[in-house]
Each structure stands twice: as structure tokens, then as C-alpha cells.
UniProtKB/TrEMBL annotation:
This is Riboflavin biosynthesis protein RibD. Converts 2,5-diamino-6-(ribosylamino)-4(3h)-pyrimidinone 5'-phosphate into 5-amino-6-(ribosylamino)-2,4(1h,3h)-pyrimidinedione 5'-phosphate. Its cofactor is Zn(2+). The gene is ribD. The lineage of its organism: Bacteria, Pseudomonadati, Pseudomonadota, Alphaproteobacteria, Hyphomicrobiales. Its EC number is 3.5.4.26, 1.1.1.193. In the C-terminal section; belongs to the HTP reductase family. In the N-terminal section; belongs to the cytidine and deoxycytidylate deaminase family. Keywords: Hydrolase, Metal-binding, Multifunctional enzyme, NADP, Oxidoreductase, Riboflavin biosynthesis, Zinc. It comes from the Bacteria. Transmembrane segments: none annotated. Gene3D superfamilies: Cytidine Deaminase, domain 2, Dihydrofolate Reductase, subunit A. It comes from Neoaquamicrobium sediminum. It holds the Pfam family RibD_C.
Amino acid sequence: MAAKDAARQAETDRRFMAAAIRLSRRHLGLTATNPSVATLIVCDGVIVGRGVTAIGGRPHAETQALAEAGDRARGATAYVTLEPCAHHGRTPPCADALVTAGVARVVGAASDPDERVSGKGYAILRADGIEVTEGVLAEAAADMLAGYLNRSLKKRPEVILKLAISADGMIGRRGECQVAITGTQARLQVHMMRAECDAILIGVGTAVDDDPELTCRLPGLEARSPTRIVIDRSLRLPPSSKLAQSARDVPVLVAAAGDADAGRRAGLAAQGVGFLAVEIDETGRIALPELLEDLAAQGTMTVMVEGGAETAAHFLDEGLVDRIALYVGPGTVGEGGVASPLDPSDPPEGFRLVREATFGNDLYREYVRTR
Ligand code: AOF
Ligand code: ZN
């Protein structure tokens, strides 16, 4: 291929892959234990099939895109955000489906670390004479698949710490219910983040002080509320809290020590609250690494930590935060404020800035861990 044609092809590949990555976002938080993956089938520059991993994880993206494309898949190019699977799981291998459909070329973004796939998907395609281009927009795809890749490679979910900080460096006022730090746009944005995560986690102090619901309340997306987890060593979650009261509608899991009050445990269980088995570390606190390992083993890919200062500091101190979503509001809290565990003026050590935006009067900065 002439250099100019190759450059044009690379540009076209990036354009379609960017569209596929955007499509894959649609089912983030809805496909556990599977990743949300997207496929586009492109014939003569026209998208003739599109698929995103179905809610609940199956069918996979490729089979849906191929079904929509029908005969037009023959000789076409397939754009896949994750290497097509190679294993006979609960569905037949997507690599085989691409071969059978007669696609001429497959363009992939991220490789699949799942040991049943890991290079075998691309190998099946190549063995059949399909042209394969790997790694197109690999970084952007890996960012979208961060939860899945984290769970596969580190055996724990991606931990996203969300912090809303006032201009004077506070995250709220002690003993008081929710203090408004950010405006409407930022709050809507946080609800979208909740929709895209598998679980949302708070310390019991926040549950007692703020009595939050932790649901996604965006119009039309109410059904996308993630599982709510409370770190609650001594089982202080009030049965009258919004969390306990709504446990039958949206799951609530409490991480409490084994010796916590049996009566309270039974009462919460009767309300529909579930419990996570936990270990206690040498500081007397719930051991977070083991808790995260257990959550990953159950399929959780992303956990959003939403409060409060102590819980945020605990995750930061243990080096368990992978991403920080930081909102800085224009107002001050003043007297009685609870100081943020992070200084909003300094980039957190060991993190790099990946996104910056303004939502109304609030500043948004997103950081990911560098190591
Ligand atoms: C794909 N396309 O859309 C997704 C894939 O349990 P199974 O049989 O559904 O397989 C789960 C594995 O499939 C998962 O661990 C990951 O490797 C891959 N996900 N693969 O070809 C998709 N979601
Ligand atoms: Zn598959």
C-alpha cells in the first residue's frame, strides 16, 4: 500500500474505532461480570452492523453486529474494542463467528487478558487469512475497559474516588446532613458516573450524617443504580436510613465485622440488606484489599467511593485508588468543615491529569494512577 493510502486507512480506522469506543460506553455498568465491548461492521465506508455487549453480559457485541450486517459482513471490516473471544463459554467464540461471516479485515483496540482469549482470538482470525490490525486507539479503549482490565490483571475492581471539595478545601460540615458543594450540572454528572459503575461505596459515618440514597436519579436511567456498599465495622447503619429502607429496590451490602451485633444484623437482613464477609486488619479496620478481592471474585469491575473523608483517606493511604474524579466548587464551608484528604490545588502524588472541564461554576479534574 502506498504511504498516502496507508495514512488514510489509519485515519479511517481511528475514526471508526472512536465511534465503537463511544458505543461501548452505552452499557458500562450493565454487563457485569462481562466487559462492555462494542463492534462495528463497516462495508465500503458505511456502518452496516453495530453491537454492544448485551445487558447482563450476553450475547457478545460481535454476534449482534454480525446479525445486523447479515450478508453485508462478507468482505467487510469489523472494528472491535476488545479482542474477539476464542473460547466456548456460554456463547460460541466470536472469532469463529467473524470467520464464518466472511469478514475480510478485523481492527482491534485492546487485547483481552482473559487467559481463555489472550492472543488466541486474533490468532484464529489470522489463521483463516483475515487481515488483523491490533492496538488502534488502544489507550482510549483501555480507559473505557479500565474496570474489566483492572479486575483481570489485578484481581480487584477499579476504584474511582469521587471527591467534591469547597474552595476552602472542605468536603462537608461535621455532624450535618449533606452540604451543597457543587451545582446541578456536577450532580447530574455524578449520577451518570453512578450509572456506569457496578458498585458505589461509602463509610457508615456518611450514611449516618448524610442519609444518602446513592442511586442514579437521571430521568430514564433510574434502573441503572449500582449496588450500594457500606463500610460499617460495628454495624451502625440505622434501619431507618434511606439505604436500609430501599434495600429491596436497589441492593445494599454492608461490610461489617463478624462480631458485630447479631440482633442488628438480623434486623437489617430482614429489610433486605446483604452482608459481605470481611477481615479486620492490624489497625482494627476492615481490610480493604481483601474486600476488593472478594468483590472482584463476584464480578464487580468498578467501585466508586463516594464518602466521606475517612473512607477516602483509608483507600488513598492503602494505595487502592485507581482514578480520582475531583469536583471543586466555588463556595466555602468555613467553621466546622471536614477537611478534604486531598489538596485540590496540587495534583495528587502518583496520579496524572487525564481530563479537565467546567460544569456550571464547578471545576472538574480527573486523574488516573501512573503506577
Ligand atoms: C467478546 N465480545 O462482547 C465481550 C467479550 O462467559 P462468556 O462466555 O460470556 O465469556 C466472557 C468473556 O468474554 C470475558 O471474560 C471476556 O474475555 C470476553 N468478553 N468478548 O468477544 C464481547 N463482552
Ligand atoms: Zn465473544
